[in-house]
């Protein structure tokens, strides 16, 4: 080492003993050391946090879904919610999830309707009870489903990210609730609520699954005092060659909905389901006529009710079930 460089280092190193002898300097060094420890701690915690949340949904639609379901964790801890489906999470509920009230059962996952009568256990029909809302131009869609035990319903939340935007604030959300009414045992209700916070019009096709060719259900449009509904009728074959007749009256809705920017759309779709006891084929005409009149009468009552009257008591809702 050159003599000049050696002398320069010796002069600089002589400063440290004097610096450390000062109480003020020791405090500064201790404070700097404390900051280094804090920085290291939070950096490590952030790394663990990123690993913990690695399975949660990402992107604009993922951020939207997290906001829309932020209360679900608290409800689950209270025992008021069971998770069915959530991106990156393990479902807490196994098997089909259905809503029912002892007279009808709707399998929300498979879009099936089960009916019972006074003398027969539940039987599967070929009728499709659910209504769907589908939009075009969606680049990413994420959804989550849970059983709301306190309300006795199944709720699904969908977050749609369109191709024209990559911000979570522009994601369109669709909330769907399914439940069977308890005080009205023939009534099944589906609510669709669409929120469009973006600056563009969101267009949705509203439709139901059509019966497969050869199925035993047929439909027609009926009119009651300037209001229309769809009347479907079919049959379920049981033991001994007897038949259970099924009549379903469903509120008729428009097929295409345009949700304006910064606005919301809400639709309540109610269905009335009437069934017969097992009968001989020779009694079809008279029994069908009675069931149709009963379904029309209750549908007319529902059409004159406002939604608040139909939902004013939580205790009147049906229950949710899960079969392993």
What are its keywords?
37% strand, five-stranded antiparallel beta sheet, Beta-galactosidase, Chain A, domain 5, 324 residues, 27% helix, single chain, 7 helices, alpha+beta, 2 domains, nine-stranded antiparallel beta sheet
Kindly summarize this structure in a few lines.
This protein has 324 residues and is α+β, with helices and mostly antiparallel strands. Helices cover 27% and strands 37% of the residues.
Secondary-structure map with pairings?
Blueprint: H1 3-13, H2 15-20, H3 23-52, H4 59-68, H5 72-77, E1 81-85, E2 97-100, E3 104-107, E4 112-115, E5 123-124, E6 131-135, E7 138-148, E8 153-162, E9 172-180, E10 187-196, E11 202-208, E12 218-224, E13 227-237, E14 243-251, E15 256-259, E16 263-275, H6 284-303, H7 307-311, E17 319-322
What does this structure look like?
- There is one protein chain.
- This protein has 324 residues and is of the alpha+beta class.
- The protein folds into 2 domains: 12-55; 59-322, Distorted Sandwich (Beta-galactosidase, Chain A, domain 5).
- It is built from 7 helices and 17 strands.
- The chain has helices at 3-13, 15-20, 23-52, 59-68, 72-77, 284-303, 307-311; strands at residues 81-85, 97-100, 104-107, 112-115, 123-124, 131-135, 138-148, 153-162, 172-180, 187-196, 202-208, 218-224, 227-237, 243-251, 256-259, 263-275, 319-322.
- The strands form 3 sheets. The protein has a 9-stranded antiparallel beta sheet with strand order 1-7-8-9-10-16-14-13-12. A 5-stranded antiparallel beta sheet has the order 5-4-3-2-17, with no helix packed on it.
- The relative contact order is 0.14.
């Amino acid at each position: 080492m050159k003599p000049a460089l050696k002398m320069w280092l010796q002069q600089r190193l002589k400063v440290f003993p004097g610096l450390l002898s000062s109480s003020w300097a020791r405090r500064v060094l201790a404070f700097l050391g404390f900051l280094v420890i804090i920085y290291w701690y939070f950096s490590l915690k952030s790394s663990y946090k990123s690993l913990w949340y690695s399975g949660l949904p990402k992107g604009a639609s993922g951020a939207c879904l997290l906001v829309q379901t932020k209360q679900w964790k608290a409800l689950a801890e209270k025992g008021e919610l069971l998770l069915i489906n959530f991106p990156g999470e393990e479902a807490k509920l196994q098997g089909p999830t259905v809503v029912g009230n002892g007279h009808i059962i709707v399998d929300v996952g498979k879009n099936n309707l089960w009916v019972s009568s006074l003398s027969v256990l539940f039987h599967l029909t070929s009728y499709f009870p659910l209504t769907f809302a589908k939009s075009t131009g969606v680049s990413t869609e994420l959804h989550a489903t849970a059983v709301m035990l306190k309300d006795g319903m199944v709720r699904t939340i969908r977050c749609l990210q369109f191709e024209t935007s990559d911000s979570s604030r522009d994601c369109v959300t669709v909330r769907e609730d399914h439940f069977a009414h308890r005080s009205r045992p023939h009534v099944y209700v589906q609510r669709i609520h669409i929120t469009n916070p973006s600056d563009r019009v969101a267009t949705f096709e509203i439709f139901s699954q059509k019966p497969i060719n050869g199925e035993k259900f047929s439909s027609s449009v009926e009119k009651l005092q300037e209001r229309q509904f769809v009347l479907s009728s079919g049959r379920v074959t049981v033991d001994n060659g007897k038949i259970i007749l099924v009549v379903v009256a469903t509120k008729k809705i428009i097929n295409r909905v345009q949700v304006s920017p910064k606005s919301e759309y809400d639709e309540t779709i109610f269905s009335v389901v009437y069934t017969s006891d097992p009968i001989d084929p020779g009694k079809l005409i008279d029994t069908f006529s009675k069931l149709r009149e009963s379904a029309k009468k209750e549908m007319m009552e529902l059409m004159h009710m406002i939604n608040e009257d139909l939902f004013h008591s939580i205790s009147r809702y049906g229950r949710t079930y899960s079969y392993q």
